[in-house]
């Protein structure tokens, strides 16, 4: 049975936000408002949704008419007050910057309808901290999707220190509406479950590059064939975005105060150089188009 959630607002039309909005409209049939701070970000988000829908249509998983219907359920806007005020569930997928997010939570909280749920797609920032910027921390939880949200079947549901049981249930039920499997993080711990495991593995892969142990293609090939990963760690880093991965490592360093989470100097340097991965056109690989990858020479 579908949950009571029907109207969802997604904050942020970027890599994760557009995909979450699409899943809300496509799999759950929700009425979705997609909000960002600039028209060009919204336009790019809507374009990414169109491109993803076209992929589903091309492989016969969705008919053209249905794809149009999905698109018509996603309403882009720049008006935060209106977008937040009408939502039963707000899913925040803004940039992984604690300062920016805290300010956003304070503003969202001013417009949130009584009893509405505010869920964060943060990968690593404390849900308890984000909730502390709102008037109703009991209505705030983590709802962590994986990239690309249109395909990845998992959502981590995260309980903050003050999250109510009913909020956990709203988020779980919404994830189910979206056709996702859920796991519950009972404690609000940095990186939750998956990123705690993943960040260490990705960091080791970048150290193998900087130590000259192997080339990126061989590292990726080794992990794909040796561990059966669908994508090697360096390609995955390009996919996630090196800046996002670096942000997660920094949160781990701060929160755990343990040097084992120190990001590799190579990743820091690449971020400084704007080599962020797929989104910037180059990271460990050249990204002419999503399906054509070649090892980049300039790391
Ligand atoms: N929308 C719809 N369909 C899509 C799509 C999208 N955005 N992206 C890819 N596809 C489809 C393609 O159409 C293709 O379909 P068919 O096989 O039916 O033709 C299929 O997916 C494979 O796509 P590609 O050929 O482009 O292959 P790819 O390797 O570039 O990407 C992938 C496919 C699903 C991403 C796969 O490689 C994969 O599972 N990679 C690992 C992803 C992963 O680990 N994600 C987690 C990241 S960690 C994270 O997100 C957490 C965090 O906080 C950082």
List the helices and strands and how they pair.
Layout: E1 7-11, H1 15-26, E2 31-35, H2 39-58, H3 64-72, E3 74-77, H4 80-85, E4 89-92, H5 98-111, E5 117-120, H6 127-132, E6 140-144, E7 154-159, H7 165-177, E8 181-185, H8 194-210, H9 216-227, H10 233-240, H11 242-256, H12 265-272, E9 285-289, E10 292-295
Parallel strand pairs: 1-2, 1-4, 2-3, 4-5, 5-6, 7-8
Antiparallel strand pairs: 6-7, 9-10
Walkthrough of the structure:
Helices cover about 45% and strands about 15% of the residues. The chain is built from twelve helices and ten strands. The strands form two sheets. The chain has an eight-stranded mixed sheet. It has a two-stranded antiparallel ribbon with strand order 9-10. α8 packs across α10. About 0% of the residues have low confidence. The site of acetoacetyl-coenzyme A (CAA) has 19 residues, from α2, α8 and α10. The site of acetoacetyl-coenzyme A has 19 residues, from α2, α8 and α10.
